[in-house]
Amino acid sequence: MRLNLRKLPSSLFARMALILLLGLFTAQLASVWLQWGERATVVSEARGQNFVERIAEAVRVLETDDPARRKDTLAALQYGAMQVTLIGADQVSPNTGHRPMQSMINARLGVEHEIRVLGEAAGSGMQWGKPSGMQQRGNARRGADVRLRDGQWVRFRLADEAEAPALSNELIARLLITLAIVAVVVMVAVRQVTRPLQQLASAADLLGRDLDAPPLLIEGPVETRRAAQAFNRMQERIKRLISERARALAAVSHDLRTPLTRLRLRAELVDDEKLRDQLAGDLDAMAAMIDVTLDYLRGLQDNEAVRAIDINALLASMSEDARVLGRTVSVAGQALSPYSARLSALRRALQNLIDNAIKYGASVQVRIVDSATELRISVEDQGPGIAAQELAKVTEPYYRTDSSRNSATGGAGLGLSIVKDIALAHGGELLLENRSQGGLCATLKLPRT
Question: What is the pLDDT of residues 294-311, one digit of tens each?
């Protein structure tokens, strides 16, 4: 039977602990089963040995006693589960096999006696006289017919035996205590083994939000130390690449703006007014594209400190700013508590969503849904929406649809890309879906950790 891993707990610690504890519990059950079987064997052997001893003792007593008084002696020999009766030769069991039992009785008597094992015992499968035990299958009755020296036959029969006694409460308590102690040791050991992996996962998650996070401690087994070293090297390389890109951006910003300024000045010298206006328009478009691209790239390396932000106050302020500009932005719902984020980045993401919604719809509805695990801020417009096959593409840099959201509306196709990157930097995501009543709903889903 294959183990369905999907039904196991999700964490590595829980899975390892569960598997080890199941193995331990199975081992304990096997131990109890073996002890129970060994206990039954020992009890059966002891009872068989006792029965043989009692037969030998009774035979000695009857042989030394006066035959006329044997009936009275028999009454004294009837004790416990053993029954002793005098029988005639015609009642003797015909079984002559089961030599181990005969040998054991004769060995204790010191003199050979004719012994017949009762048919019920002879066919019961009892292993008399073997180290593996005088085992009894079911509750077969043990018995033997013994011929005394004067020719009298005596039948010895052992009544049905009870089952072997159960394990004592003390032994069961010791087994449970042992199981509990080993379970605690297993939990502690598994926790020690999985802790470096948990730290590595936490560090990787923190790295996505803060490149200046402290490096991992190099500790634990060889494999986890190597993983921590590789992670720290990766973090250093990423920081170095981001730093180099920042310097390159500064150089590009300076180098591109200088020739654009010269071109703008030279365009003013063109006598043809129509051509001059066309050149000025192209230069303005180039400058705007450079600005938005540099702005996008700078946003990817935003090192602003994280702080608690009053989401309700932030959206109220943005709604008021829109009202001053003659735009309608309403806010429904409220955040239950401040949210820890980078203020400038979060404001920029929300402003991009609002501006995008205003561009394609007359009014904008902002909805806040908050819980203990996540914060959702949805921006809804009443525009034409986006084709279903385009929803996954519009968040790619410089991508614009060919229908309603095209170059005629302006922009370089970076607005939603910036929002997506800001959401990812906060451990969240940007969700886009068309509303059933028309328009687009863009949801900024942010985790509360």
Answer: 666 665 555 667 889 999
317 to 271, 304, 332: CA distances (angstroms): 47, 21, 14
pLDDT tens, 264-301?
888 888 888 888 888 888 888 777 777 766 666 665 55
**Domains in the chain and their CATH numbers?**
5-158 (no CATH), 199-303 (1.10.287.130), 307-447 (3.30.565.10)
**The dihedral of CA 390, 394, 396, 398: what is its sign?**
positive
Question: What pTM, to 2 d.p., does this model score?
Answer: 0.48
SS3 of the chain: the string is CCCCHHHCCCCHHHHHHHHHHHHHHHHHHHHHHHHHHHHHHHHHHHHHHHHHHHHHHHHHHHHHCCHHHHHHHHHHHCCCCEEEEEECHHHCCCCCCCHHHHHHHHHHHCCCCCEEECHHHHCCCCCCCCCCCCCCCCCCCEEEEEECCCCCEEEEEECCCCCCCCCCHHHHHHHHHHHHHHHHHHHHHHHHHHHHHHHHHHHHHHHCCCCCCCCCCCCCCHHHHHHHHHHHHHHHHHHHHHHHHHHHHHHHHHHHHHHHHHHHHHHCCCCCHHHHHHHHHHHHHHHHHHHHHHHHHHHHCCCCCCEEECHHHHHHHHHHHHHHCCCEEEEECCCCCCEEECHHHHHHHHHHHHHHHHHHCCEEEEEEEECCCEEEEEEECCCCCCCHHHCCCCCCCCCCCCCCCCHHHCCCCCHHHHHHHHHHHCCCEEEEEECCCCCEEEEEEEECC
